Every structure is written in structure tokens, then in C-alpha cells.
Amino acid sequence: MASDGFRPLDEKSLVEYLKATPSLAAKLGSQFDKLEIKEVGDGNLNFVYIVIGSSGSLVVKQALPYIRCIGESWPMTKERAYFEATTLQEHGRLCPAHVPEVYHFDREMCLIGMRYIEPPHIILRKGLIAGIEYPLLAEHISEYLARTLFYTSLLYLTTTDHKSAVAKYCGNVELCRLTEQVVFSDPYKVSEYNRWTTPYLDADAEAVREDNILKLEVAQLKSKFCERAQALIHGDLHTGSVMVTPDSTQVIDPEFAFYGPMGFDIGAFIGNLILAYFAQDGHADKGTDRKLYKEWILKTISDTWNLFYRKFTALWDKNKDGPGEAYLPAIYNNPELQLLVQQKYMEDLFHDSLGFGAAKMIRRIVGVAHVEDFESINEASKRADCESKALNFAKTLLKERKKFHNISEVVHAMEHLDK
Amino acid sequence: MASDGFRPLDEKSLVEYLKATPSLAAKLGSQFDKLEIKEVGDGNLNFVYIVIGSSGSLVVKQALPYIRCIGESWPMTKERAYFEATTLQEHGRLCPAHVPEVYHFDREMCLIGMRYIEPPHIILRKGLIAGIEYPLLAEHISEYLARTLFYTSLLYLTTTDHKSAVAKYCGNVELCRLTEQVVFSDPYKVSEYNRWTTPYLDADAEAVREDNILKLEVAQLKSKFCERAQALIHGDLHTGSVMVTPDSTQVIDPEFAFYGPMGFDIGAFIGNLILAYFAQDGHADKGTDRKLYKEWILKTISDTWNLFYRKFTALWDKNKDGPGEAYLPAIYNNPELQLLVQQKYMEDLFHDSLGFGAAKMIRRIVGVAHVEDFESINEASKRADCESKALNFAKTLLKERKKFHNISEVVHAMEHLDK
Ligand SMILES: Nc1ncnc2c1ncn2[C@@H]1O[C@H](COP(=O)(O)OP(=O)(O)O)[C@@H](O)[C@H]1O
Ligand SMILES: Nc1ncnc2c1ncn2[C@@H]1O[C@H](COP(=O)(O)OP(=O)(O)O)[C@@H](O)[C@H]1O
Ligand SMILES: [Mg+2]
Ligand SMILES: [Mg+2]
Ligand SMILES: [Mg+2]
Ligand SMILES: [Mg+2]
Ligand SMILES: [Mg+2]
């Protein structure tokens, strides 16, 4: 392993690394013996160290050649750190307000040094479990989605720049394959990794594996995921990849990034909000029925899509004479036609987002990796009730996504199922 | 230019090149002073030499850094020869019966040595103009399409192999851009390169530029062309890229190859047969009304799609436990579901093929590059009548492609319009 210049760090060797790396040392001040270092990797894949020095702080993230939460028995290329670093840089350039700055990247060591997103920031998923409202969340995430997706699509890029970026991110194939497996395949077959709240959901899990129409639809989404290089997507934009305060929203962890369908990011975020919604009844005990909070989640779902729609089409209008070659101004030269093509584009994107969002929900209930929203509901029967509603909603969404015309119809369907 | 090892050859320097290249020299025999050499490049882009020696023959094709039929004022990467050579090799491996063997490839010289497809082979387009029936054409082309498209798609390849091939062919971006321009853009706007049979088609050409629904639909096809890496497609599969005898069908000239939508190849071929059909009335004079020949073209269109359907799904069935990761056997494990997913896949592919075919027809009537099928009709008003029917049919096909359920409905619509 040393042969390729890679060493897994621990808290001690990390100090030596920091000392020897000027761009990181400069952030921390000179007293290296007084550094405060804490490994906080609560994620599934990597090691994350918070480093606090006398005059500043940073985070160091290192990828090891396997999946952390499973161990060396599930190998995974550490090259993912390269795609995470370049995506943080690219998305950070396009949307600096919502992406942590990269201070340093070491490709051999698969190591990223980046801004420490300080407390009171917490992981959004934890905030949603705690019932905390984030009034700017939809505004911020829609901004992040609109800017990162628009500017890396053919609406803005030339074919030449687009194809060269597509080629580069084809290199992140191992992470794409992992998504293919855990999102689009395992939940629909018997797999040693699958789990669910047993015995309550045994029949539901089996029903997923026996549902021909569901499998037909998920195959089409999988094809789109594998074949359609629409924009540089984050690739893992669930509520555990977002850190928040009431004023600030920061997107981390784009190691699954590649040129894929935009709806996969939008759907991941909205799908995880829907999971949070259906989990609320499981958190409703002590003093609050979470009724108002559920309304806030619904509003945030609506606002996220509607603001995204507005911002994305505004970027399109603003850049319609820009470098993008998809809709040449000499052809799409009248306002009526411009409106028509945008409506069609956004309608397709909406249906993609619902489909991918639903697929991401299903896999969190009957697949390998579950979400704390449900896992933190101790009483199994209560958890199963929540999960079962979410699963049923996801199945409907996946199969009937093209019958929904706007996000408020989706929200109404959620309320209806929740009655 | 010499700096990168590239020299444009002429008939004289070609002889020296052949002498110095064992893999080519070996095909020809030793009497180099008696070689018969003829430049026959009737195509638009490159130089093609037929070389006949004392004990064998071959063809040499060289790409120059511009588009031959326009000249040095329209530069075009000569790297296209690399993508043509690798595609000939890859498609040749998958379907040796219908692709000429590559004897030699010289990347610096952008030069391919390949099998001479000997007389009585002629270019299919010329045969269609002459009214010659090719009873095996549909059988052969459907075989070529089914094998090359199936085996380079995710129905057969692993994600890993697919993404690595996609990345490589992203390098053929200049040729993709040329297609984007001449097929999906120029016909829908005022462009110096466009031409049509004037004054007869002036209003028709303008109507294409003013048709909002047509432009909406063509934008979606263009996105699919740019974004969807479905299989290694030929990229230029018109009837001028096929050489035929009644017994043999050979596909040449895949310099536009890349990972794109399968429907672009199927559509190119069928669309050019439809052009041939509507051109027949212009060739009907001397002694024959071409009525029976038109019926043969219609039958060939039907047979091409129907045989393709049968062969492609047969390959799918045969390889359903193979390396392909799109439809895992553990999920798509019952015959009913297998049928369902195939029907959906083929339905989408059918509509893609009709859309791309229609776009290729339109561009041949109001865009830069026309087809001999129409160009050889001397009388302008008669030519315009033929072109106008073809154009109207193409517009309907493009806009209403999803209303067609099978190829016989397409054929009936052609007959109906032709009355
Ligand atoms: N820049 C950062 N600032 C503060 N905390 C961070 C930062 N990056 C990661 N973390 C913490 O580390 C955890 C794991 O990081 P993440 O990038 O999601 O790793 P993984 O790829 O293993 O999921 C996050 O949930 C968060 O708590
Ligand atoms: N292998 C071959 N055997 C015989 N003739 C060939 C062969 N390759 C090309 N030709 C002839 O040369 C012409 C131009 O070749 P083509 O590959 O289509 O070039 P371009 O890329 O310029 O269109 C063809 O129409 C055909 O007549
Ligand atoms: Mg994470
Ligand atoms: Mg991660
Ligand atoms: Mg040609
Ligand atoms: Mg062509
Ligand atoms: Mg050519």
C-alpha cells in the first residue's frame, strides 16, 4: 500500500501530516502540540477529522479502500476522494454560499482538507428528527440545485466542454455501481444486505420483490441513471449530506458525483424530506404532536421544487445567449417557444425527480442502508407503521409519477395517505 | 504538419507507404510498380483509394484535417480516423459478416487499410435509385443493428466496461458537434449552408423554421443524442454507408461513432429508405412506374424493424444471464416480467427511431447535405413534389411518433400520403 504513497492516517499521524502541509498548517496557527482533533465520521464510507488549532480550524476527510461501515470485506476505490474534491471545487465555484471551501487535496493520500462547518451547524437529518424548522432551507437548497445543475448542463456548457467533463467523471464508475446496486437492484431482489422492520414489514418487502410494474418502472430509472449524462450531479444528496443552522445551508460529501440525471439530486433531497415527514408520528410523543412541524416539512417540499423551478428557468433565460448549445437562440427565438420548451423540460425533470426520489425512499426502508429518521423510533410496531406509509407512498409515486402535474398534487397525496 | 507525423497522401506517395507497411504490402503481392490505384472518395469527408495488386487488393482511407467537400475553410479533426478504425474493429468483431476487415491502422497518418468491397458491390443508395431489389437487405441490416447495438449496450456490458468505452468515445466530440449542427440545428434556422429546391420549397423551408411544435420535438431528440450513452452507434448509417449485392451487405464509414442513442442508427437507415421511397416517382419515367419497387421498399422498411425487433430480443433472451447489469436475472426472473420490460424497451426504441429517422429526412431536404435520391431527379418541379411529400411525412413522423404502435402503421401512413 505504501507503494502508491497512500497511508491511512490516525489522529497521531494526522498531526505530522498537517505540520508538513503548508496550506493546512497555515489555517491552524503554529502550536501543533495543542491541536484538538476529533474523528467524527458518522457517515458510512470515510474517516472525517475535525481539527481545531490556536488560530483556526479545518476538517480532514480521508477515503480508505473499503466501505467503512462494512469493513475491508467490501472494497471500494479510494479514488472516490478525487471525484469528491473536484466536485466540491466545481460546485463551490458555482455556488460558494452553500459548499465548503477546499483548502487542500492530496490525490495519493485520498485526503481532502476543507472548511470546518462549525457548530451550531448540525446534519439536517438530525434537525428534522428534532423537529427544528429551517426557514431558509428551501431557498438555499433550490439555489444550490439550480446553480450546480444548470451550469454543468448543456443549457450552459458547449458540447465540447460537456463531453470532456463526462469522460472524466466516467472514472467514478465504482461509486455509480454501488448506487446501481443499493438503490436500483437490491431492494427488488433477495439480497443478504437487505433488512426491514421484521416481522411487520415482511409482507411489504416481499410485495416489493413481486411487483412487476414497480420493477418495470425502476428499470427505466436505472437506465436513465446509467445512460443519461445531463449534468454534474452530487449523487448522494440526502438530508445527511446537508449541514444547517437557521441561517446557513452547506452541502457536503459529493463523492458519488458524476454526469447523471438532474432528477437524481432533486429526488434524493425531496425523497428524504418525505421520509422525514412520515417519520414524524414516531417522534410525536413528548408534549408535541408534530402537526405544525409536518406542515413545515410539506411547505419546504413545495418551496424546494417551486423555487428550484423559478431559479433554474431564470438562469436559463439569463444565459439564453450564452455558450450552451442545447437551445440555440437562432432557433428558439420567440418567447412563446422559449416558454414551451422550458415547460416541457421542467415537466420531464419533475417526473424524473419524483421517480428517483421514490426509489431512494424505497431503498431506505427495505434495502441495506436505513435512515435515522426511522431507526430512532424505538418501538418497532410504531416504526413499522411510519415506514409502511412511506413505502406505500413511494410505490405510488414511482409507478404513477407521470400523473402528478405539480408539487402541490404530491403534497396533497401525502396528506391524503397520512389521514 | 509533418511535426506530428501526418502527411496527406496522393496516389504516388501512397505506393511508397504501401511498400513500407508489411501488413498492407502482404495483401498486394510484390509488383509495386504495377499497382492499380484509384481515388474514389465520392463521400463528403475523406480520401478513399482502391488499390489492386498482383495477388490481392485493399482500400486505403485517409482523413484530412478538414471536410473534403467543403475544403480547408471547414476544419475537422483528423482524429476521426481513430474512432472509425476502432469502431470498424469493434463492430467487425460483433458482426464480421457485414463489416469490412481492418488490415492496418496508422493513428499518426489517420489512415485505415481495409478490405476492398469488390464489385459487383455498389453503394445501396445507387441501387435504390436504379430500382434494384436486395432480397436479403433487411435480414442483413437487422442482423448488423441487433448485434452491434445489443452487445455494446448495458443489456450486455457491465457498467464498468460501458463507462470506460463511453469515456473513450467522448473524444469523438467534433464529429458529434457536426451532427448536432447539420441534423438538429441548421434546418430549423436561417443558415448559410441550408439549401432546398427553390422556389418550390421556399414556403416549406420557412414553415420548418416557424414550426414551434417541430422545434420542441427536435430539441428533445437533440438532448437524447447529446446525453444518452445507450450503445456504440455507427452515427452515420444512411444508405450511402452501405454497400450491397443481392447476396451481401457491408457497412462502411463509422467515423461518427460514439456512445449514443440506438434509435439514431435505426432511424438513419429507415429514414433514408423512406427518402428513397418518396424519390421513386421522380425516377418512374422510362418504361416503369416503379410501383412494384415501391412495394419492395415498404416491405424492406417493415422487415428491417420487425427482424431487428426479433433478433435484438432474441439476443437479450440468450444473454439474460450474461454480464449485462441492466436487468439482473434475480429481479427480472419471470417470463411475464421479462416480456413486459422488453416490450417497453422496444416501444421506446421504436419511437426514438422514428424521431431520429424523421430528423435525418428533414435535414436532407432543407439542410446542407442532400441525397442523390432526389438530386438525380433533374426536373426541379418534379423533384420538389417528391421532396415535399417526404418532408411532410417526416414532420408528421417527428411530431406524432408516439402515436405509431408498430412499423406497419408507419408504412400505411406512407401509402396514404402517397395517394
Ligand atoms: N466540512 C465539515 N465540517 C463539519 N463537519 C463535517 C464536515 N465534513 C464532514 N463532517 C462531519 O462528518 C460526517 C461524515 O462526513 P461525510 O462527508 O458525510 O462522510 P461519508 O462520506 O463517510 O458519509 C458528517 O455527517 C458531518 O457530521
Ligand atoms: N472498403 C471499401 N471497399 C470499396 N469501396 C469503398 C470502401 N470504403 C469506401 N469505399 C468507397 O468510397 C466511398 C467513400 O467512402 P466513405 O467511407 O463513405 O467516405 P466518407 O467518410 O468520405 O463518406 C464510398 O462511397 C465507396 O464508394
Ligand atoms: Mg455522508
Ligand atoms: Mg459519503
Ligand atoms: Mg461516407
Ligand atoms: Mg448522415
Ligand atoms: Mg464518412
TrEMBL record, chains A, B:
Stretches assigned to the Aminoglycoside phosphotransferase domain: 36-270
EC number: 2.7.1.100
Keyword field: ATP-binding, Kinase, Nucleotide-binding, Transferase
Entry superkingdom: Eukaryota
Any matching Pfam family: APH
GO BP terms: methionine biosynthetic process
Matches recorded under InterPro entries: Aminoglycoside_PTrfase (IPR002575), Kinase-like_dom_sf (IPR011009), Methylthioribose_kinase (IPR009212)
Single GO MF descriptor: S-methyl-5-thioribose kinase activity
Assembly information from the UniProt record: Homodimer.
Family listed: Belongs to the methylthioribose kinase family.
Name listed for the protein in its UniProt record: S-methyl-5-thioribose kinase
Species for this entry: Sesamum alatum
